[in-house]
Amino acid sequence: MNATAENIQTETRTPLVEMRDISIAFGGIKAVDHASVSLYPGEVVGLLGHNGAGKSTLIKILSGAYPRDGGSIMINGEEANINNPRDAKSYGIETIYQTLALADNVDAAANLFLGRELLTPWGTLDDAAMEAAARKVMGRLNPNFRRFKEPVKALSGGQRQSVAIARAILFNARILIMDEPTAALGPQETAQVGELIKELKKDGIGIFLISHDIHDVFDLADRVTVMKNGQVVGSARTTDVTKDEVLGMIILGKCPPGAVPGPGAARL
Ligand SMILES: Nc1ncnc2c1ncn2[C@@H]1O[C@H](COP(=O)(O)OP(=O)(O)OP(=O)(O)O)[C@@H](O)[C@H]1O
Ligand SMILES: [Mg+2]
């Protein structure tokens, strides 16, 4: 099937996120060059590309970590003002970095409320309320999780990942950015992260998934956007392209018939 204008026009829902024509340069290097990507509610969009393609930089613009030189960001169809991470959070955008940024020496509940602790009317930490909230949100994401009293450094990689995700959704993330969530995980834990992602999709949360692993992305993503040298090669539904075709996009910048080409598509 040819993904052309008709295909795009049949999509009548308003995107959760639309990044249009985004550019940023560091010194003389165009790290992101007129890139456009979109994300719909309940959708997982895989961002693929070689090292240095501009994936993380693009997503850091969405999370407010980097200012953009040009382009606009629409959230739910309206232009968003995102100039710092706090702005991004106010739009429900949460990022889970590869490092997870957990406080290793404290338990899951303390991590969920890090910097946003619940207090009793007397101004002391409301540990009971925080633990109850932690059990509720973790219970939904990862029902087998029992290790609420242990410091998170004792947890497995997959469990740590679920704590990081729980922290994001506890504060009403609608848009989740996951940069290489499975890079440090074994197969079983990778599968666990896959289950977490499916739960989030059911709630209508949109997820940008950055990964080097094209197999993971194919399993989890509804669409992929491939970047090369800061430019978008193209975007496609994972059902409309093969893995080999996506590899061709990543390596050669070659846009297959099932994908919508971007400015970075090789002219053949
Ligand atoms: N803070 C920065 N200062 C200068 N150059 C940067 C900075 N951040 C990124 N770059 C450059 O921008 C380009 C895109 O980098 P980016 O990290 O976005 O790529 P990536 O696709 O995420 O790669 P990887 O798969 O290795 O994570 C690269 O050339 C990189 O060296
Ligand atoms: Mg990166």
UniProtKB/TrEMBL annotation:
Listed GO MF terms: ATP binding; ATP hydrolysis activity
This protein's UniProt keywords: ATP-binding, Cell membrane, Membrane, Nucleotide-binding, Repeat, Sugar transport, Translocase, Transport
GO cellular component: plasma membrane
Top-level lineage group: Bacteria
Record localization: Cell membrane
Keyword Mitochondrion among record annotations: no
Domain ABC transporter: start-end pairs: 17-254
Chief location of this protein within or outside the cell: membrane
Matching CDD domains: ABC_Carb_Monos_I
Recorded topology in the membrane: Peripheral membrane protein
Gene3D superfamilies the UniProt entry points to: P-loop containing nucleotide triphosphate hydrolases
Name of the protein this chain belongs to: D-xylose transport system ATP-binding protein
Protein's organism: Gellertiella hungarica
